[in-house]
Design goal:
This is Tetrapyrrole biosynthesis uroporphyrinogen III synthase domain-containing protein. The chain has two domains: about 120 residues, Rossmann fold (3-Layer(aba) Sandwich), CATH 3.40.50; about 120 residues, Rossmann fold (3-Layer(aba) Sandwich), CATH 3.40.50.10090. The radius of gyration is 20 Å and the shape is elongated. Strands 3-8-7-4-5-6 form a six-stranded mixed beta sheet. Strands 2-1-9-10-11 form a five-stranded parallel beta sheet, sandwiched between helices. Helix 7 packs parallel to helix 8. With about 260 residues, it is α/β, with parallel strands linked by helices.
Length: about 260
């Protein structure tokens, strides 16, 4: 039972899938690279990290610029995975959306609005990739908060080599179920292009998305004929690895 893993870092999830006896295909859509370190201001009331990787890079390369330990700053993340990462890095004061909420900027903003400290916010730093959404910054700005961005890494699209395509085409959902993992809007866009360009619809069986917006995005991007001729099932899961594994298990064993 194959699982197509599309994130840049699939080590833990791949090992966990293989322990359960599932075949994994490592198909990272993006590769990440750390951007040159630059001087930054340190007088922020809140530091927001868009994902675990941004937090790891920031703690590794920017901690020396602060006059007090980073773990004592108020910090926020858009999901529980990043929350766990920050805690492992030593952060003590971390805000994240509730576990049962969508893990995104909108949910984080609602959590900020409900915080007793929200109206004390004057300056916020958002640590992210070179390109990213503006929604959270725009929403904070409407409340008079100054928002700065710090890009700590860049993403590039990985080239698709012939051997990987052959490996994917050898799979068939007529023999056993196949699960594709989609965990970002950018990833959904590129996968829709690949599925069409390389004619991988025979391998397009179960699509597992970490946000409902990605499901709608894929449905709008693929031609209508795909939905008329192919039996594609969509599933939603939380972005934490353990939740992804539980959902894959339900797909394979129809629990």
């Amino acid at each position: 039972m194959p699982v197509i893993l599309t994130r840049p870092d699939n080590h833990y999830l791949s090992a966990a899938c293989q322990q359960k006896g599932w075949q994994t295909v490592d198909f990272p859509i993006f590769k990440r690279s750390v951007l040159p370190i630059e001087p930054i201001k340190t007088d922020y009331d809140l530091i927001v990290f868009v994902n675990s990787y941004a937090a790891q890079v920031f703690y590794q390369h920017y901690q020396k610029q602060f006059d007090r330990p980073l773990e004592h700053y108020w910090q926020a993340v858009v999901g529980q995975t990043s929350y766990s990462t920050l805690k492992s890095l030593g952060a003590k004061d971390v805000l994240a959306p509730p576990k049962d909420a969508q893990q995104d900027s909108e949910s984080l903003f609602q959590s900020l609005l409900q915080s007793d400290r929200f109206h004390q916010l004057k300056k916020v730093l958002i640590v992210r990739a070179k390109e990213g959404r503006q929604w959270l910054a725009e929403s904070l700005s409407q409340y008079g908060v100054q928002v700065d961005f710090l890009a700590v890494y860049d993403r590039e699209i990985n080239p698709v080599d012939r051997s990987l395509l052959e490996q994917l085409r050898a799979l068939s959902h007529e023999k056993e179920p196949i699960v594709w993992l989609v965990s970002s809007a950018g990833m959904a866009t590129i996968l829709c292009d690949y599925w069409q360009r390389y004619q991988l619809f025979s391998q397009l069986d179960n699509v597992l998305c970490t946000h409902p917006k990605f499901i709608e995005q894929i449905k709008k991007s693929l031609p209508t004929s795909v939905w008329e001729t192919e039996k594609i099932k969509f599933y939603e899961t939380k972005p934490q690895d353990d939740e992804i594994l539980k959902t894959i298990e339900r797909i394979f064993y129809k629990i």
